[in-house]
């Protein structure tokens, strides 16, 4: 194993992974610098979720290496990967997955409460994040009383309360209208930039990828050049990294 450069918070080489015999990643390498917002841009089924799950230590790739802060992740036992996910990573999916019986602040504070932080302190931190994401006034409402975009911003707050090194956002705005999409993305990216949090953002939408500092294309589990739908008629494909 060759150690990655020091300034890469995430560094992965030659990742290959199959789900039950179906290849999802067929040789992907990626590096993400500290504080960078990287978009992984590709069509449905390209392997974006699988790549994020490998980088986040949720699954161990069949082949290849994943390093976080110059330490290998792919060789860690499950308990250590779980601790890494809990302490250093945040995750936002396309669906907010809030607990319906909890209020917005309780949902946002959940990672803190689960790791044993005090109630008052957890509530304060959750409220700060809800305020930063412009939904402070929803703190005492339950998910059923929130709009879809508000629920997704609570999920963003939940991913940020532990001050993670990296947030993985898997199609975080896929279910939102265009105006909400842009608002949620702006709040996520500006919060990440102001707190020096690295973001890996999977999307099939070039407009969403435009919020990132850099985009890498992924097609059929390989680095590729996805073409935005509106440009399919024109001749020039995107470069693999823009
Ligand atoms: N848990 C799983 N079991 C079986 N096959 C899977 C599983 N997860 C992903 N796949 C398959 O692996 C391939 C890559 O899927 P993946 O979800 O990583 O791609 P994606 O780019 O995130 O696509 P989408 O936007 O549709 O989620 C697809 O063919 C998918 O059907």
UniProtKB/TrEMBL annotation:
Chain residue ranges for the region called Disordered: 216-242
Keywords: ATP-binding, Nucleotide-binding
GO molecular function: ATP binding; ATP hydrolysis activity; transmembrane transporter activity
Gene3D superfamilies, per database record: P-loop containing nucleotide triphosphate hydrolases
Source organism superkingdom: Bacteria
One Pfam match: ABC_tran
InterPro entries given in the database record: AAA+_ATPase, ABC_transporter-like_ATP-bd, ABC_transpr_LolD-like, P-loop_NTPase
Domain ABC transporter: 10-242
GO cellular component terms listed in the entry, alphabetical order: plasma membrane
Family: Belongs to the ABC transporter superfamily.
Protein name (Swiss-Prot/TrEMBL): Putative ABC transport system ATP-binding protein
